[in-house]
Every structure is written in structure tokens, then in C-alpha cells.
Amino acid sequence: LGCLLGVCLITGVLFLPYIPYSISLKEGDTAFKTVSSPRFLAFQTNVDQAKTKELRDKRVSLIQDIYTVNEDINKTIKSHIISFFTDLKTQRTLPQQMSPETETLAFLSASKQRYILKLSNQEFEEIEYLTLQITDKFLQQGIDDVKPKDIRKLLYLDLPHYINKRKVSVIFDIIVHFIQPNLVLNEAKTESEKQKVMQSIPPFQTTI
Known about the structure:
Blueprint lengths: L1 H14 L26 E2 L2 H16 L5 E3 L1 H22 L17 H9 L2 H21 L6 H11 L6 H14 L4 E3 L1 H14 L5 E2 L1
Antiparallel strand pairs: 1-4, 2-3
Helix pairs in contact: 2-8, 3-5, 5-7, 6-7
């Protein structure tokens, strides 16, 4: 019994500040001391909700769409390049040269067609290796638009210095012919980023 009374006493002391007391005042009466509420009440008005929505919408509008590299596109591009060199290897074994009208090399000038057909096997394999290597590096950076000027710049930065300009020109033409944009909108990441921003903005509230 003593323990029960002790618990009740402690509970009463702890919650006493939150127990409202009766005040007998009417409109126009003068209070003899300052009257204050034992607690604050926070809530959202329609105005608060509108302000919160406006601020969140503004912040979300600043978020740019997130694009990521599509590996399926990368595989397709590299597969086409490998098929191109495979077909060309077969043509190089034929006794007669390919005609300039041959579809495989149609995107190259006649002089470059003759050049690549007369290369030694070692030089040909070198061009194939470097073409795939540079293409893969360029694809991993992400491409939103094929810009030949950027591809040419990357070639001169990454290709060994001993590669002559004619080989560089052939590699450049092959890459420009097969490469394509590989960045796609990542809706999940974009939406996730928007949700993070919205949750980081606390709602406006009215406190009384």
C-alpha cells in the first residue's frame, strides 16, 4: 500500500504542470496575474500546408534528371564492332580485294578501304584492339550525344604516340560509325532523390 501511494504521489508531481486549472474569467475581465497555457499546441493550417508544398515543389524542381549508362547498349555497340572486324578478317583472306561498294566498309572512303585491306595481320589486329579499347572507355564515360570532336580528342589523348595518323583516322571513322548515345533516364534514382529533398524540408506549422 505504501508503494502504491508513493507511485501515485510521484505521478501527480510529474504531471501536475500539465493539468489545467480552472479560471473564472469572462470577456472584459481583468486578470490579477499572467495566465499561460501549460502546454503548446502545434498544427498545420491550410496556409501552412500551402507554404510547405510551395517550398518543397521549388526544391524538387531544382533536381535534374539522373541518367545512367545502359550496359545493354554498350554490349550491342561492342558486338557490332566485333562483327565488323570478324567479317573484315574473312574478306581479307579472299584472293580479290573488296570493292568500295561492299556494305561492310561502305562508311569508309575508298582510300581507307584499300588501306585497311592491305594491312599486315599484326597491324590489323592492333587496330581492332585499339578500336575496342577506346570505344569501351568512351562508353563508360556516358554519351548523351555523339560528338566527333570529343571522340577525336579522346583518341589523341589515349592512343600510343607511335600510331600513325592514317591508323588514327581509320579508328576514328569506325568508332564514329558504330557508337551511339548510351545514357538513359534512371527514373528510380531521380524519384528517390526528389523524395529525399522533400523529406528534408520540415512542414510549416502554427504553434499556440
